[in-house]
What does this fold into?
Amino acid sequence: MVQELRVTITPGKAGTPKKPKGAAIGVTIQSPSPQPATTQNVKVLFGKGIRFNNRLFPRCSLKSIQATKSLSRCPKGSIVGRGTARAIGFIGSAQVPEDLTVTAINSTNNSLILWLNGAHPLPLSDGLVGKLGKASGKYAHRLDVTIPKGLREVMPGVYAPLVFFDVDVKATTTVKKGKGRRARRVKVHYVETTNCPSGGWPFAADFSFDPAAPFTDDPLTAVSPAARCS
It folds into this structure.
């Protein structure tokens, strides 16, 4: 089984710890296999020199979104990215695709919600929750995403693995710095770069798969080409 990962960062000119540079990050995951395994968990690892300012952004809880199956209750500034995805449902020997839109929402408890919407062949509105945390080695951060059973097995016995997932995260907000007369509003970016490691920014993703699905595999790691920087 193969999983492909590609992560991009723009601009390639890095900032410094004292003068970080705002950036956009794009993450693409796809499975070119004709019999794709159903991903149960994926941990995306982000190289040193990249940081997330999620604590400074407005937050929207999954509970608020699920109450209306919409983003109407999310505060302005909590939406931090958008993208597309595709799932393939296997009904007997037939493959039934469903195209999805993806909205990335900054959420509570250091989490990022990836809200999925689809219309055909099944109406779908549900979210993946990714936990942002620290990583080790040449990686600074990780996003740990578990795909809930209801999105893996969309009907009893019918599994629908995600075979394509692409999201771009780029957002800014303003925060208050200083006190009294020296207080001012400054713009901060959801993603910033603070240095350029030798060889560029590295990225990887660890996958595990649902053993109950018709096609499965052992855990594996996909490595993205390093993003060039200077």
